[in-house]
Design a protein that fits this description.
- The protein is of the alpha/beta class and 337 residues long.
- It has twelve helices and twelve strands.
- Strands 3, 4, 5, 6, 7, 8, 9, 10, 11 and 12 form a ten-stranded mixed sheet that branches. It has a two-stranded antiparallel ribbon with strand order 1-2.
- It starts with a strand and ends in a 13-residue tail after the last helix.
- GO terms for molecular function: transferase activity.
Amino acid sequence: MFLSVTSGSSRSVVLDMSINSEEKISVCLLTYNHVHMIEETLASIMDQSVDGFEIIVSDDCSTDGTWELVQQIAAGDERVRAVQPPENRGMPGNANYAVEQSDRPYIALLHHDDIYRTDLLERWVDVAERHPDVAFVFNAYGFEDTDEVHVHPYAERVDGRQFLEGRLFSGWGCPVRGTALIRRSCWDAVGGMHTQFNLLADVDLWMRLAARWAVGYVPEPLISVRQERPEDYPESYSEFSWFRQRMLYEIHAANHLDYYDLSTLRGALAWWRFRGRLSADIFKWLTYAVVRRQKRMLETSAEGASEYEWASIGLVRNLYRKLGQMPLGWREPRRSR
């Protein structure tokens, strides 16, 4: 039996009520060059408290033995299916490829370097089943070897538009760390991940989903985050970079333009607020570079230039870059080994 639930003109989702919730889940685990972690991560997934789910491990053409190890694990557990795109596609391309291999109603999008509590899938699906207008469910996060927990004051069901406007649009951070249970019909409706946004494509995805549907939340640390990065992890994502900031600006701009009608007063005000916040953020980082004598930040600051910044920001950038050429005791860039 199929049940269609509608909570707005563009918020219809379809649920297959004829199968158990466990059998609706496709775990899509994205891997790349994490041979030293993947076995423990997979073990935490295979030890879940529910049965009937499948595990699709999509390896993005690893070169360190991850792919070979995943194949060995898959050969010993019928729930695990190892797949690999024909070429390295980056995180969003690999995510899209993994989801293409599945036909189940729920996608549990997971990553290769976290540890998952045994009731993760059970808790996620419970929220999704009880709130059929929810597009994705996420949770609080713990951090390995520490007592630190990131918990947010959200209800179990959060109005998507309030979440988008009040949280995702209001700052440059994102409370969702890239792991979530996603309703497949909603994933398909928005077209999956946009690959042009690279490792930040999940931020764009949460925005597009929240614009149309509600959001689910579990206020418990169901995931333990491991912060270790491989040696070839892009510096532009592991530390500050203008490239990463510009990517965030582009994601926010694209979603503001899709979400708001700029011909209305509300839309126009939201757009000008966004441009003001963007300009203030660039000014903040430029000023930080000068105060902290970060020469490389000034030398590469043009990489953060946005077509949406105020014209005055370009003048400030040029002035600060000229300061960076003066003998003022600047810190030289670290040399890679």
